[in-house]
Design goal:
alpha+beta, 4-stranded antiparallel beta sheet, 16 strands
C-alpha cells in the first residue's frame, strides 16, 4: 500500500496544469469522491473543488488508480470523512493519507485493460443511444408537424411518494438530476443512502425537470423489474394517456421549443434555482403525437434501441462496480474476473 500523494509546495506549483495521466478528484459538491482522468487531447481548467493527483507512472497505472478511487470501498470511506455543514468537503490531509494498493505494475495494467473494456462498451452504447435520441427528436420536430395540443391532454402527472426508510429491498434505482447529468443512468444504491422522500416510478414514464427547465433534462425511463425505481422530486413524473407511448411523449417534451416555452414560465428570483409549476408544464402546447401515423413505428423502434443500449450499460456498470473493489484490492484475480465477464457477455 502507498499514500495517494506526498508533494512539496514547489511540486504543487509545477503541477498546476493538468496533463495526460493526471487524475482529477472532486472533493466537494454533488460529485464529491469521484475521480476522472484528464481526457486525451483536451486542455483542462481545474476548479477550486478539484484536486489534481499525478501518479508515478513507474509504480502506479493512472487508470488503475482512478478505478481504485472510484471503488465502493474508497467512496464509503470518504463519505464518512467529509467535514463541514453548509458545503461538506473532503479535506486535503484525508486525500493525501488515503492508502492505495500497489500490486505489480503489470497486474495494474491488466486490471486497467479489463475494466477499461467494460467502460469502452458503455461508451459505445451511449453513442448509439445519443444518435437514436437525435433521430427521434428530428422526426418529431415541430418544424415537421403543425398540430398543437396542451401537454395535459396526452399525459398524467403522477405524484406517488415514498420514504426510502419504508423500502425493504436492499437496492433501488435512483433517478436524480446528478445521475441524468453524468450518464443518463439511474444510480443503483441502498435506500439508506437516500435522505428524503422520492416519487415512486412503477411504470414506464417521462421525467421532466421542473428545476431550470431550459436545461435539457427530459428522461425516458422504463423501471427494472428487479428493484424499485425512485425519482427526485425535482422531476415531474409523466405517464402517457391512451395510445400514446412513453417514447412519443418523450419525443415531444424533449423538443427545444417546448422547453423554451416552459422556461419562460419559471418562478423564483435565483437564476440557479428557478422552477416551473406543474400546471404550467401541463398547459404548455406540444406537437400532437397522435398525428404521427406511420412514423410512430420509427420513433418507437429508435427509442427502444436507445433504451436497450442504456439498459445494457446499466448491467455492465453494475458488473464493473461489483468487480471493482474485489479486483483492485487483489481479492479477485484478473483471470477470474475475465471468466465472470464472459459469463455475463
Amino acid at each position: 500500500m502507498a499514500r495517494v500523494s506526498e508533494e512539496t509546495y514547489a511540486d504543487r506549483v509545477r503541477r498546476a496544469v493538468p496533463q495526460r495521466g493526471d487524475i482529477l478528484y472532486s472533493r466537494e459538491g454533488s460529485y464529491h469522491g469521484i475521480a476522472a482522468e484528464v481526457p486525451f487531447g483536451h486542455r483542462v481548467c481545474m476548479g477550486q473543488r478539484m484536486v489534481l493527483i499525478r501518479p508515478n507512472s513507474n509504480v502506479l497505472n493512472f487508470r488503475f488508480l482512478r478505478y481504485w478511487l472510484n471503488s465502493s470501498y474508497v467512496r464509503d470511506f470518504i463519505e464518512g470523512m467529509r467535514e463541514g455543514s453548509g458545503a461538506p468537503r473532503i479535506n486535503m490531509p484525508t486525500i493525501r493519507e488515503l492508502l492505495t494498493p500497489l500490486p505489480p505494475i503489470g497486474e495494474q495494467n491488466s486490471v486497467a485493460r479489463l475494466l477499461g473494456a467494460l467502460d469502452d462498451k458503455i461508451a459505445v452504447n451511449e453513442r448509439i443511444a445519443a444518435t437514436a435520441d437525435e433521430l427521434v427528436l428530428a422526426i418529431a420536430s415541430s418544424e415537421r408537424w403543425e398540430a398543437r395540443i396542451p401537454l395535459g391532454e396526452i399525459c398524467t402527472l403522477r405524484k406517488d411518494q415514498i420514504s426510502p426508510a419504508e423500502i425493504s429491498e436492499p437496492q433501488v434505482d435512483h433517478y436524480s438530476l446528478p445521475a441524468f447529468d453524468s450518464q443518463k443512468r439511474p444510480e443503483r444504491t441502498s435506500p439508506g443512502t437516500i435522505k428524503s422522500g422520492k416519487f415512486l416510478v412503477a411504470t414506464p414514464a417521462v421525467l421532466f425537470s421542473k428545476l431550470n427547465p431550459e436545461i435539457p433534462r427530459v428522461w425516458n425511463v422504463t423501471p427494472a423489474n428487479a428493484v424499485p425505481a425512485l425519482a427526485s422530486t425535482e422531476f415531474l413524473v409523466l405517464t402517457p394517456r391512451g395510445d400514446v407511448s412513453t417514447h412519443e411523449l418523450w419525443a415531444v417534451t424533449a423538443q427545444q421549443d417546448f422547453r423554451e416555452v416552459v422556461a419562460a414560465r419559471v418562478t423564483g428570483t435565483s437564476k440557479s434555482h428557478q422552477r416551473v409549476r406543474p400546471t404550467d408544464v401541463l398547459a404548455a402546447e406540444v406537437v400532437d403525437p397522435r398525428r404521427f401515423g406511420a412514423v410512430q413505428q420509427q420513433i418507437n423502434s429508435l427509442a427502444l434501441s436507445a433504451l436497450a443500449a442504456r439498459k445494457e450499460s446499466v448491467v455492465l456498470a453494475s458488473l464493473r462496480d461489483t468487480l471493482l473493489p474485489q479486483i483492485t484490492s487483489g481479492r479477485l484475480r484478473v483471470k477470474e474476473a475475465e471468466m465472470i465477464i464472459e459469463d455475463h457477455a
